[in-house]
Design a protein that fits this description.
Its EC number is 3.5.1.6. Pfam families: CN_hydrolase (PF00795). This is Beta-ureidopropionase. The chain is an alpha/beta fold. It folds into two domains: about 35 residues, no CATH class; about 350 residues, Nitrilase/N-carbamoyl-D-aminoacid amidohydrolase (4-Layer Sandwich). The chain has nine helices and 14 strands. A hairpin with a 5-residue loop joins strand 4 and strand 5. The longest helix has 21 residues. The structure holds N-(aminocarbonyl)-beta-alanine. N-(aminocarbonyl)-beta-alanine binds next to helix 7.
């Protein structure tokens, strides 16, 4: 099967597994059967058709409790292509993405979404593969009052929706430095705060350390009207400690806005955010771009192969995982999409009570061991046969 025929893992399973076995296959692979789809209104379905996006929705339930009311929220992930050529003026590229995302957010509000997260560096092509500074650094903007935050503040207020906006940040107060940052905008239209990407890749064509440094914002959790949220930006998903600290700080939903390509990370994709949901008893939302972005000048991948102008398609496949280990199917590998998950946040504490992963976590043991392991004179604890 050619890459272009492979729309999603689920589409292939649905096509080839006999119906009587499919339910069990889904239960084992996804932790739940396939009968919990969210129903959308005619208006939402028709708007999604108008803007030509895949629209999918799923429900995660929790046990009914005597003392706490259910805490139901609707959370969404947006995956999208960059359609304007990368040779167009910067403001034209950014305006086109502003328009595209505004249209998708209009679908989200009719779907009753409370919190939405966009993909990593959503206002620009993922140009860091080129290692060129210009014109790409021009995409960086102020997180509180830049054009993107201004536009989203208005939409957040109008739609009563928390918006997580991962952008390239320009910090004018600190020597015009650039950061890879997620901006959190409240449903009342104000800026709540930001988180800067903690782990910067130095792998394949992901040459991001050419542009910005490791984040200095720790592991902030943002208390919103709809729940406590955090953002683990892209490559940070390979670091269990990064996920863990958002849990230690009380996150109930951790978003993972990403930009990653099939040749590099696709086999890891379904595992990492899902495992983080299990290990930390919170929900995770893994979001990846779609499409192939072509750049004006050739660049090499430092692997002896010929220079090229793109680094392969981003494979989408955005999904949501729950603390009980279950997950939604992924969006497609190649199409713009909106994934909506309705979740009862009471599930987080219920799973903590059931599995006891936090109770048995032994953080003091690891704090002590790691404090020793990072010392220059540390000797690994290996016992050898005499
Ligand atoms: N954007 C980003 O950090 N990509 C790195 C590649 C990966 O983590 O799959």
């Amino acid at each position: 099967m050619s890459e272009s025929n492979f729309k999603s893992l689920e589409a292939t399973l649905n096509k080839h597994i006999p119906p009587e076995e499919l339910r069990e296959v889904k239960r084992v692979l996804y932790g739940r059967p396939d009968d919990n789809e969210l129903q959308f209104s005619e208006e939402t379905i028709s708007l999604a058709k108008d803007v030509d996006i895949e629209l999918k929705g799923y429900v995660f339930t929790a046990r009914k409790e005597d003392l706490r009311r259910p805490r139901i929220v609707r959370v969404a992930a947006v995956q999208n292509t960059v359609d304007i050529p990368t040779t167009a003026p910067i403001h034209v590229q950014r305006d086109a993405l502003h328009e595209k995302i505004s249209n998708i957010l209009r679908v989200a509000v009719t779907a009753g979404v409370n919190i939405v997260c966009l993909q990593e560096a959503w206002t620009m092509p993922f140009a860091f593969c080129t290692r060129e500074k210009f014109p790409w650094c021009e995409f960086a903007e102020d997180v509180e009052n830049g054009p993107t935050t201004k536009m989203l503040k208005e939409l957040a207020k109008q739609y009563n929706m928390v918006i997580i906006s991962p952008i390239l940040e320009r910090d004018a107060n600190h020597h015009d430095t650039i950061w890879n940052t997620a901006v959190v905008i409240s449903n009342n239209g104000t800026y709540i705060g930001k988180h800067r990407k903690n782990h910067i890749p130095r792998v394949g064509d992901f040459n991001e350390s050419t542009y910005y440094f490791e984040g200095d914002t720790g592991h902030p959790v943002f208390e919103t009207q709809f729940g406590r949220i955090a953002i683990n930006i892209c490559y940070g998903r390979h670091h269990p400690q990064n996920w863990m600290m958002f849990g230690v700080n009380g996150a109930e939903i951790v978003f993972n806005p990403s930009a990653t390509v099939g040749g590099l990370s696709e086999p890891l994709w379904g595992i990492e955010a899902r495992n983080a949901a299990i290990a930390n008893s919170y929900f995770t939302v893994a979001i990846n771009r779609v499409g192939t972005e072509v750049f004006p000048n050739e660049f090499t991948s430092g692997n002896g192969l010929p220079a090229h102008k793109d680094f392969g398609p981003f494979y989408g496949s955005s999904y949501v995982a729950a603390p009980d280990g279950s997950r939604t199917p992924g969006l497609s590998r190649d199409k713009d999409g909106l994934l909506v998950a309705e979740m009862d946040l009471n599930l987080c504490r219920q799973i903590k009570d059931f599995w006891g992963f936090q109770m048995t976590q032994r953080l003091p043991l690891y704090a002590e061991s790691l404090a020793k392991a990072v010392k220059p004179d540390y000797k690994p604890q290996i016992t050898r046969e005499s």
